[in-house]
C-alpha cells in the first residue's frame, strides 16, 4: 500500500511543479505581448499628434505605424 501512495505523491508533485512553471511561462509571454502592444499604441498616438494630413510623407508614416500595430495585435492573438 505504501508504494502506490508514494508513486501517486511523486506524480502529484511533478504535476504541480510543471503546472507552476507552465503558468509562469504563459504569464511572462502575456506580459511581454501586453508591453509590446502598449508601446505600439503609444507610438501610434505620438505619430497621430504630430500628423499633418497635407504632408504625404507623414501620412505614409502614420499608415505604416497603424499597419505595424495591426500586425502586433494579430501576432499576439
Structure, explained:
The protein has one domain (2-76). The protein is 90% helix and 0% strand. It is built from two helices and no strands. Helix 1 (2-49) runs antiparallel to helix 2. The protein starts with a helix and ends with a helix. The model has no long low-confidence stretch (mean pLDDT 84).
Low-confidence stretches: none
Number of helices: 2
Query: Which strand-content bin applies to the residues?
Result: under 5%
- Report, as a whole number of angstroms, the end-to-end distance: 48 Å
Radius of gyration: 23 Å
- The domain count comes to 1
Gross morphology is: rod-shaped
Helix content: over 70%
Give the SSE order as H and E letters. HH
What is the tally of beta strands?
A: 0
Q: Tell me the major beta sheet.
A: none
Kindly state the mean pLDDT as a whole number?
84
Structural class: mainly alpha
Amino acid at each position: 500500500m505504501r508504494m502506490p501512495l508514494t508513486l501517486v505523491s511523486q506524480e502529484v508533485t511533478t504535476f504541480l511543479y510543471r503546472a507552476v512553471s507552465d503558468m509562469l511561462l504563459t504569464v511572462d509571454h502575456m506580459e511581454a505581448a501586453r508591453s509590446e502592444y502598449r508601446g505600439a499604441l503609444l507610438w501610434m498616438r505620438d505619430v497621430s499628434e504630430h500628423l499633418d494630413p497635407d504632408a504625404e510623407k507623414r501620412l505614409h508614416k502614420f499608415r505604416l505605424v497603424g499597419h505595424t500595430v495591426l500586425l502586433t495585435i494579430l501576432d499576439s492573438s
